[in-house]
Amino acid sequence: MNQYLIQGGTVIDPTGERRADVLVRDGVVAAVDEHLGESPDAGGATVIDAAGCVVSPGFVDLHTHLREPGKEEAETIETGSRAAAKGGYTCVVAMPNTDPTQDCVSVVEFVRKQGEAAGLCDVRPSGSITVGRAGTQLTPFAELAEAGVRIFTDDGSGVQDPLLMRRAFEYALDLDIVLAQHCEVARLTEGAVMHEGHCCSTFGLPGWPSIAEELMVYRDIELVRLTGAPVHILHLSTAGSVELVRRAKADGLPVTAEATPHHISLTDELLAGYSALYKVNPPLRTMADVEAVRGGLADGTIDAIATDHAPHAPETKEQPLDQAPPGMLGLETALGVGLASLEMSVAEVVAALSWKPAAIAGVADTHGRPIAPGEPANLTIFDPNETWEVIPATLASKSKNTPFVGVELKGKTKHTLLHGAPTVLDGNPQR
Ligand SMILES: NC(=O)N[C@@H](CC(=O)O)C(=O)O
Ligand SMILES: [Zn+2]
Fold it and tell me: Which residues form the active site (predicted)?
């Protein structure tokens, strides 16, 4: 019998916060109570020390780029899953901008099976909205939904054609799926490498204006109003977008949104050194935007923290800014950035990392569950007070493009359990 006693921690789950030990047996939570260590029921269990730690449902990432198939030199489903487990994640939604694209059942099935084989994290493939993410022809939504796809997105680019997007929403209505939009009017961002504003003028670099995002957020909110189908706004980054989503929610529209760790902590000033480590899409914005996004998370306008974990091989990020690909790592640092940057309680940050994204991803039957007898034991145990610095060489991700070197992070994952078995113990991946 496979048994673990998680001892001495503070349990935080959707039902609240309390001091309790957690007994895990055969993949599920068997008991939750104070001083379970003295109970004969826990006899023979392997003890996991949680003193000073929070025991929470595992984190769920709505936005992970695993790069397989196609760019295995940057990440594989196995290395990305390992990075996820180290960051406290038990489930990730794999973005579709792979090669080939996740636009048909065979590719989606491949990704799901590779995730199962790695056994470190529950990998849920997204499907693209258009074939090859080319923006012209819808993918077979019903067939992909039947294969278990819940999130549909062309992430990496936004669906530009408003008629095609309208049809996508209309088809989505009868299926239990969510369209997730990468909000970018591409015509307004051609050649851009950073946010358009004071800094880009000073540095002499081509800028990506806030309205390129906000016009698309506005358009899609209005398409939601017209069709009634839900939308999820990916990596929202401007003060104006936060306000648009806030108003849409006040109107009762089915709109959800996510923000990344980098958009709540870093600004466009970092591009001063012309390093592509800070090139990302959407770009790092101003402090006023960062504060607005933090405010959006704090008042619930933004539902989830999602990493947009975007591994890129070192040689690609060493290129000049205009040639280097956009994107930065996120899975192993999200908790530490979130707790260091947000003026929210630990429980509120955990909600944004766990059960709120679980609901959007359609995985709330297995992840982000209350920690109670009979529930699946997908759990994260982290020290909310440990401060630490990232050492890129120690990251589990195959790529090392983290922008958080030299930044003090607060909060570190110690142990992660997937279906009742440790994927990470004392910070060390178990496979
Ligand atoms: N965010 C990025 O800058 N890059 C992502 C694509 C994306 O999420 O838009 C990538 O795939 O590298
Ligand atoms: Zn994107």
Answer: 308
Q: Where in the chain is the domain with CATH 2.30.40.10?
A: 3-55+373-429
Indicate which residues carry an active-site annotation.
Answer: 308
Determine whether the annotation assigns residue 428 to a binding site. no
Pocket flag, ligand 1, residue 259 (CB < 6 Å): no
| Ligand 1 pocket mutation, candidates 63, 97, 316, 399, criterion most atoms within 8 A of CB | 97
- The DSSP string of 264-331 is GT--GGGGGG--GGG--SSPP--HHHHHHHHHHHHTTSS-EE---B----HHHHTS-TTTSPP-B--T
Q: State how far the alpha carbon of 101 is from the alpha carbons of 131, 134, 158, 177, 307, in Å.
A: 8, 10, 15, 19, 20
State the amino acid at position 33 in one-letter form. D
Is 198 among the annotated ligand-binding positions?
A: no
**Using only C-alpha atoms, what is the Rg of the chain?**
21
Kindly report, residue by residue over 159-182, the tens digit of the pLDDT. 999 999 999 999 999 999 999 999
Q: Encode pLDDT of 12-47 as tens digits.
A: 999 999 999 999 999 999 999 999 988 888 889 999
Locate CATH 3.20.20.140 in the chain: 57-361
To the nearest whole number, what is the mean pLDDT of the chain? 98
Closest alpha carbon to 429 in 58, 79, 82:
82
Q: Is 63 known as a binding-site position?
A: yes
What class, spelled out in words, does domain 3-55+373-429 have in CATH? mainly beta
422-424-427-431 Cα dihedral, nearest 10 degrees = 130
* CA trace torsion 110, 112, 113, 116 (10° rounding): 160
Tell me the C-alpha distance between 381 and 21, whole Å: 12
**Kind and range of the H or E run holding 244:** helix 239-250
Closest C-alpha to ligand 1, atom 9? 156
Question: 308 C-alpha to center of ligand 1: Å?
Answer: 7
Q: Ligand 1 centroid to 427 CA: how many Å? A: 27
Token couple for 15: 């039902």
* CATH, domain range 57-361: 3.20.20.140
> How many beta carbons lie within 10 A of that of residue 19, not counting itself?
11
What pTM was estimated for this model as a whole? 0.98
